[in-house]
């Protein structure tokens, strides 16, 4: 059950700003979403029917899942203190 990953331009810019060590970990987590859109540790966002988040150290990846079309869309990536603002 493979999903297609789509990354919004704003999220892509945030990923590009990350330091190389955390950048690699975030990139690996995003690639793993292709195989499993709801990995262990992912949490559903309150107030959203299809929004989820996963932790990568102190960073969060915010994404939505469209099960019908098998699409995972990354909407935001950032430090935990700033990503929910």
What does this structure look like?
With 85 residues, this protein is of the alpha+beta class. The protein has a single domain (4-79), classed as RelE-like (YaeB-like fold), CATH 3.30.2310.20. The chain has helices at residues 9-17, 20-32; strands at 4-7, 43-44, 51-56, 59-66, 71-79. The longest helix is centred in the first third of the chain and has 13 residues, at 20-32.
Which features would summarize this protein structure in a list?
2 helices; 26% helix; single chain; alpha+beta; YaeB-like fold
CATH fold node name: YaeB-like fold
CATH class: Alpha Beta
- Approximate strand percentage: 25-35%
The mean pLDDT is 95
Give helix % range. 25-40%
Number of domains: 1
Number of helices: 2
Query: Could you tell me the number of beta strands?
Result: 5
Structural topology:
Layout: E1 4-7, H1 9-17, H2 20-32, E2 43-44, E3 51-56, E4 59-66, E5 71-79
Summarize the structure.
With 85 residues, the protein is α+β, with helices and mostly antiparallel strands.
